[in-house]
Specification:
It is a single chain. Helices cover 7% and strands 43% of the residues. By secondary structure, the chain is mainly β. It has one domain: Porin, CATH 2.40.160. It has a 16-stranded antiparallel β-barrel. Strands 6-7 form a two-stranded antiparallel ribbon. A hairpin with a 3-residue loop joins strand 4 and strand 5. The longest helix is centred in the first third of the chain and has 16 residues, at 4-19.
Amino acid sequence: MRISPYFLSLAALAATPALAQHDHSAMPGMAMPAARPSPTDTTRRTRPGQPTGHQPTPADTSHAHHMAGMHMDGMGDGHMGGLNMSHAYSRHLPMSRNGSGTAWNPDQTPLYMWMQHKGPWMLMYHGSAFGRYTSQNFNHAGKRGQRSAVDGPNWLMTMAQRPVGARGLLNLTLMVSLDPLTETRGGYPLLFQTGESYKGQPLIDKQHPHDLISGLSVGYTHAFSEDVDLTAYLGYPGEPAVGPVAFMHRISAMPNPDAPLAHHWTDATHITFGVATLGLRYKHFKLEGSNFTGREPNQYRYDFDRPRADSWAARLNWNPTRALALQVSRAFIKSPEDLHPDDNVTRTTASVLHSRSWGERRYIASSLVWGLNEGHGAHAEHAVLAETNLTLGRPTFYGRYEFVQKDSEELAFQPSTPPGQPLEGRVFNINALTLGASYRLATLGGPRGPELSVGGQLTGYVIPQSLQEDRYYGVVGYVGPGYGRLPLSASVYVRLNAPWMRPM
């Protein structure tokens, strides 16, 4: 069993603090100088992301608007003084609202990252790397999906931004993953997971690895006023305006090393080779439209796939409070699957993300996500996800519930049926509940080093009788095993992630 690639990903994450040693004046604990008062508002000064007329409470002052030690007063006039770091795509929103692509997190989302400044540029680095042992369907030896493995899901993201003139903001983002080295043979085992293909075969009971270059994007935002700005975003690869913040960037999913089973119903477009998005923000609303490549990434994880610009999406974001981020989106995706090139998918999603902090490393973050795929086959398939991360200093407790509908073709599972009854097109309702906990052991290499945690989780699946039984097909006889009754999967892991950033 080759373990050395996993340590490559851990080493890459552990080495990142060295990048942040260039200038500690931008690190937590030191406020940035305030910019001059806005010439358009001489009566008061507002903090980024606050509606006009809002008077901050003590709770407001303690978290989002001094987030991560970056003093953000005075940004309402469109000047950051070359030092302050705002949201990636608005000079008038807090950095804590950053999600994946152009999606929004709640403003009270905790931040785990390193930061520094170089001249007019503000730089941010964050990431996560697991080293784990997982055993799928361990209570049914010889049944379908029964597999154990050592693996290491991981990712690292770098973001750079700077003001352009009095109203512009430029953002550059790079995201990389060593999954191609740590998740071999098409990906890591994950019971009832489907999506994408490997060596001409669909991936079933397996989560595909992410591409080495998982994100490479540029965005420019022009602020017309404190309340209105327009963003242009290009990614190759990038993330179109579909679904909520992708799972690896949701704090509610941070301790869980597994991708959601609903990944290809909600946020699988987070790596898309060719994306162009326009977004118009008005206060705490943002309307976005994207043109993008519908085809999912191919099995070759080190290259850049051909852009096609054949699919469309629209999304409406709304953050009604600092603790909530809501979105609805709809996408028309052309030929997403390589093995079914004639099948198009219409995807609809809605989500509510919640986050609330009340002390040092004490917070709760939750997500409720619904997704609907239509057009692949003759039926619509729904997925619902609910997940929570409760962190109380060193210990973290988390859970995830999913309801996913997957058909007999997607699972490549044709159960025996009475004579004359069709086998194709059956939809199976799959329920999965994960409960887990982790414990932060140490911060490596000093107070700004990566955090080391250990954890474990258990997942149980409630599935229909037809998926439990061995498969038979007419007079052909035995074809293959079923999953058994109440399959169980478990994982134990160590995790490295960027450090939590203390608000001022």
